[in-house]
# Entry
Amino acid sequence: MNNLSNNLSALQSLGFTLPGPGYLFGSIVFGLVGLVAWRLGKKKERPTTKWLGVVLMFYPYAISQTWLLYLIGLALCAGLFYDRG
# Structure
């Protein structure tokens, strides 16, 4: 256990931090919504829906703040909502 805490402190000293539960939850939810949107867009031949789904699945890898993750995710979901017509 001591070795694990030493490794964790070494990573934190380099600027790496572990994401919180809210971030992990948001990443999973938006990733699943993106997967469903991608599959639906592919099936119904709707390129905007398909690409919004791809962005929803992969944008959490580029975002580190939780509030920004939710803000962008909700905006992309709103885009899916308006594209459904």
